[in-house]
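[step 3/7] inverse_fold.run input=structure_tokens len=520
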């Protein structure tokens, strides 16, 4: 048992591949195509968007309760060793080691004539989560005497690691008259490898404070796996496995934004709602459902120690191995944001994110500021509170020059000492964007900031045509900061109708308007 604790603590201190949060990137709104991973309703203003393999998106992150310095200590001789007492003091009741990695394979998206967007995409994704409790770690490191008369739930100790590919199609549209955007994505999932414990696993251990007898109850204590032998090359063909295999699933993403008034926009989404059925290279190992009381080893006949231990403890466990197919769900995520326009032209954003992990809910919150300069720059800064972490400082930005857009987002920019790192989240990539001749006004300009010109409706109702100039709907050719670029306007006349008290027309006066300023 002590070896298990060592493995968990070492993994906690050194497993730096990736994790969860990305609120800094989420606060960029609809600035990039990748924003649709958080909310499918986000519609970038570009006409055509293209993503190249790997270059268009890489996500790395990490979230852990313990840092390297929380686990490792230096001895007086100058060597390093694991300090269990120090590590246990840094744990909370429930703890998590979470990791995520995502690599974009491609994406193609284009705007439609009915104020929407269609997209096709593929991503390579890896997720790993280890959940464990402080009492469980204390019991296996300090012995059961440290948890006398305390029921330890092993159900809180769970694991899930999945490697899969998603291929999907998305569609989003907006209704400017109602101030809403709605989007959805349907994803086909191809699973490659999985290690997991079932969500219905139940296990408890209690040590009597007088007799020191151990009462244990085990139900569905199984460690399932798929594809591990293929991945390490011991069986099957890895190349064929990574192209197509029997591990399949589906998932959906849903999202919306609603412009409440000229100042305020709210957004909500639910993503990664789906499952994968695992059928290839299955190996399940577990302990048959049982309940028992363990009172120790009878020292009579100690000369036959092996048989004594077997009779007293080992025979209480019946180890099972099976090859039955099983299914796992993804880790669904929900996001909500409240955006308020400011007189400076920027926006204040409050965001909340929730992730479902192995029957537990993990929540993160953040407050940030977003500002846009023309069509070439969008940036945000924010303060976030991640699961089991203190406040983090994050930032994100996109820069567009010609058809090339670069974006970078980091949720942890304050700490640079690697031995103190407990969490980080990094996203970066390069997209190709083509705007066409006419650009729509995106959410950052029309959604929540009242200091931009308002959209007007057609006569008799219906969808908006663009913006108004001198009372007439016009086409927007582009945006330069807070200014809208329009075509040169001709001289117009204003007709005034005077009526008598009975409502009959008496005369019509015609007044010439001054010539509008020249230029585009």
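[step 3/7] decode complete -> sequence:
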């Amino acid at each position: 048992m002590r070896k298990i604790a060592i493995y968990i603590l070492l993994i906690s201190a050194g497993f730096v591949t990736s994790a969860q949060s990305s609120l800094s990137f989420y606060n960029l709104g609809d600035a990039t195509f990748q924003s649709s991973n958080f909310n499918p309703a986000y519609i970038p203003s570009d006409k055509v968007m293209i993503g190249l393999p790997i270059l268009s998106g890489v996500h790395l992150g990490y979230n852990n309760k313990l840092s390297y310095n929380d686990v490792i200590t230096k001895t007086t001789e100058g060597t390093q060793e694991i300090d269990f007492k120090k590590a246990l003091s840094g744990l909370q009741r429930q703890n998590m080691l979470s990791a995520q990695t995502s690599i974009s394979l491609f994406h193609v998206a284009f705007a439609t004539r009915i104020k929407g967007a269609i997209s096709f995409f593929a991503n390579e994704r890896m997720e790993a989560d280890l959940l464990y409790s402080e009492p469980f770690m204390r019991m296996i490191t300090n012995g059961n005497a440290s948890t006398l008369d305390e029921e330890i739930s092993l159900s809180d100790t769970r694991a899930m690691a999945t490697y899969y590919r998603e291929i999907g199609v998305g569609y989003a549209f907006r209704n400017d008259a109602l101030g809403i955007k709605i989007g959805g994505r349907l994803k086909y999932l191809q699973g490659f490898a999985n290690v997991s414990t079932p969500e219905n696993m139940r296990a408890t251990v209690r040590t009597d404070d007088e007799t020191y007898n151990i009462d244990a109850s085990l139900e569905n204590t199984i460690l399932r796996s798929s594809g591990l032998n293929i991945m390490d090359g011991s069986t099957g063909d890895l190349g064929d496995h990574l192209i197509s295999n029997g591990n399949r699933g589906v998932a959906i993403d849903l999202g919306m934004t609603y412009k409440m008034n000229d100042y305020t926009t709210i957004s909500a989404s639910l993503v990664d709602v789906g499952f994968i059925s695992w059928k290839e290279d299955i190996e399940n190992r577990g302990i048959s459902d049982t309940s028992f009381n363990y009172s120790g080893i009878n020292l009579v006949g100690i000369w036959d120690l092996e048989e004594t231990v077997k009779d007293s403890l080992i025979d209480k466990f019946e180890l099972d191995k099976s090859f039955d197919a099983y299914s796992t769900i993804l880790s669904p995520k929900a996001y909500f944001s409240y955006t308020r326009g400011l007189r400076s032209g920027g926006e204040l954003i409050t965001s909340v994110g929730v992730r479902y992990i192995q029957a537990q809910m993990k929540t993160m919150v953040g407050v940030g500021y977003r500002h846009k300069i023309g069509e070439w720059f969008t940036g945000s800064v924010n303060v976030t509170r991640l699961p089991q972490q203190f406040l983090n400082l994050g930032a994100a930005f996109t820069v567009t020059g010609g058809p090339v857009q670069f974006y970078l987002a980091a949720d942890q920019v304050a700490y640079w000492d690697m031995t103190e790192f407990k969490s980080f989240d990094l996203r970066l990539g390069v997209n190709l964007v083509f705007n066409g001749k006419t650009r729509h006004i995106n959410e950052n300009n029309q959604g929540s900031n009242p200091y931009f010109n308002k959209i007007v409706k057609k006569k008799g109702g219906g969808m908006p045509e663009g913006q108004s100039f001198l009372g007439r709907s016009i086409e927007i050719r582009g945006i330069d900061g807070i200014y809208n670029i329009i075509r040169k306007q001709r001289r117009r006349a204003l007709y005034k109708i005077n009526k008598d008290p009975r409502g009959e027309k008496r005369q019509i006066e015609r007044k010439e308007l001054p010539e509008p300023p020249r230029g585009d």
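[step 4/7] annotate
Residues 1-20, 297-303, 308-313, 437-466 have pLDDT under 50 and may be disordered.
DSSP finds nine helices and 32 strands in the chain.
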